[in-house]
Each structure stands twice: as C-alpha cells, then as structure tokens.
Description:
Two copies of one chain form a homodimer.
Chain A: E1 5-13, H1 18-35, E2 39-47, E3 55-61, H2 64-72, H3 74-85, E4 89-104
Antiparallel strand pairs in A: 1-3, 1-4, 2-3
Keywords (chains A, B): Monooxygenase, Oxidoreductase
GO molecular function, one term (chains A, B): monooxygenase activity
Protein name (chains A, B): Antibiotic biosynthesis monooxygenase-like protein
Amino acid sequence: MSExxxxxxxxxxxxxKADRVQELLETAAAAVKANEPGVLRYHVQRETKGDAPVxxxxxxxxxxxxxxVHGASPDFKALGRALKKEDLLAAPMKAYFTKEVGGYAxxx
Amino acid sequence: MSExxxxxxxxxxxxxKADRVQELLETAAAAVKANEPGVLRYHVQRETKGDAPVxxxxxxxxxxxxxxVHGASPDFKALGRALKKEDLLAAPMKAYFTKEVGGYAxxx
Lengths: 108, 108
C-alpha cells in the first residue's frame, strides 16, 4: 500500500463559466465526501481576483488505490462529461502531484 | 480589519535548481513561522513528478495587514533577491488570491 500524497489541480473556466464550474465541483466534492473514505482532502478554492477566476483543487489521497477509486467513480466521470459537453474550460486541467517539504499547515 | 484570505503561489524553478529553491523557501518559511503571527498557513509543496518540479505555496493571511507585514519583511526581500541574483526561476511566480468555496479540508 503506498503512502498518502497530494494533488493540486488548477482548473481554468472560460470567461463567464466560473459559476457553473463551481456548481459542478461542489456536486463532485459532496459525492467524494460521502462515498470515498480514501480521499482525505478535497478542497475547492476559487480565485477572488479577475473576471475569469480559476479554481484550485487541494486533494489528498490515502494511497494510490484511493486515487484509482476516485478516477473510476461515476461522479468524477459525470464531472468530466459535463465540463466537456458544456465546453466550460479554457484550458485542460493542470494537475501537480506534490508532497509537503516545509513550512506549516496551520497556526490555529 | 479585513477577513482571512488565502494565496496559492506557483513557483517554477529552472531545471536543476529545485533543491536550491527549496532551501530558500524552507528558510523563508522558518522566518515566517517565527516572526509573523498573522500568517496562519505557509506551507511549501514540491511537485513529485518530472525533472523540473514546481513548488506550490499554500498561504493563509489573517488580514491584509498581515500580508503587508510579510511583503515588507527582510526575509521575504532576501528570498526575492536570492531567487533573482542566482537566476533560479524559469518563469515569474504566479500568485492566485483564493477563497474556499466547497469540499473539505480534512477527514482526519
């Protein structure tokens, strides 16, 4: 079994499409929370500046299997289909596999 | 006094320069932790795939004043000078001001 790891994904909606993309991401996030115990973090961040905000997903997977389950889930596939069918993205999603190497997550 | 807000910054080192950039970011993060109580999160993430990994900073500021203090700090200025003097970056840092709009930060 692999170690937990993070994915940080940048999603770039077309101008005027951010609200619809947010709606889809919120639906996907609710399904992940309900159905995927191996996804330890699935946090939707929206850019607050500019008229074409990006979304940044902060995700943490318990192991590779959890990512496999996520990728195969009907909700994730529905998200992908809707983004494509409604032509909502200005660029392909950019995903970074990351690990923490310093600093601190919280002072609270 | 403004509300807490997040900044997610993507830092792109030149090939072969990631370790030096990480060193500088770790030094800066230690100073932030020690000297800047208004910075609630200053988390250094390194990309684990590819031979030219990017760094993604996950930062949370208590308010605008905290960002002002951060930007004016000698350590932040020293970081900027070193990145420039040693010509370590392949592209300018890309900073996104963000807010959470859905999903969850942790299941732990």
